[in-house]
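Input chain follows. Return structure tokens only.
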Amino acid sequence: MEVESIKPYSSEGGKAKQVEEMFDSIAPAYDFMNRAMTLGIDRWWRRVAVRMVGKSHPNCILDVATGTGDFAIDLYRKLQPEAVVGIDLSQGMLDVAREKIARRGLQNVLTVQQGDCLALPFEDKSFDAVTVAFGVRNFEHLLQGYEQMHRVLRSGGVLCVVELSTPRNRFVRWFYDLYTLHIIPWFGALKSGDKSAYRYLPQSIAAVPQGDDMLAIMRKAGFKNCQVKRLTFGTCSIYLGEK
């Protein structure tokens, strides 16, 4: 089953609207669940991705599917660009992000806004780097999302996608399946009250294109010099591409 057809709540209706409703629902518990689900390793994954983005020395960064703003904040604090802009479908997630940004006094350099990744509200060639952390599997149309990110990148700009993935080692995969298919949905429902959201998570990870298949979509959207770096037994993949 293609990842675009995996939806949080039902087979009827558009995926984007359901994803928006899902993240609005789980926004208060999202950060806690991220730490719990990954045992805190997600922080390290983002640090690795920030270092990879930093090699291109971007001055203006767009963080797509910014969620509660963790990646956008990391990008600014480590790379010190002139500006970071975050965009997300979910107002509930953005409310959490704005609180974090305000606590850190970053309102003048880090802004977030609601918007659709399939129709980015920015001019062509507006950013030196575009990033997405744990978000592309939620795109209603994956190729269209990549094409939009390619459009708003300046020539020579870099795209960095951090995404959960399934390990290829059979022994690791057994424990991974037990954890993601059984423990996470149970614990996620207990903490957030939304059973469907944490059933959707492992389904979307399993369905999203991975490795060479993801790189092929990036190339089709116009990116070059595409590469993938796998982390933590293959449970996370970082994809890089250039315009």
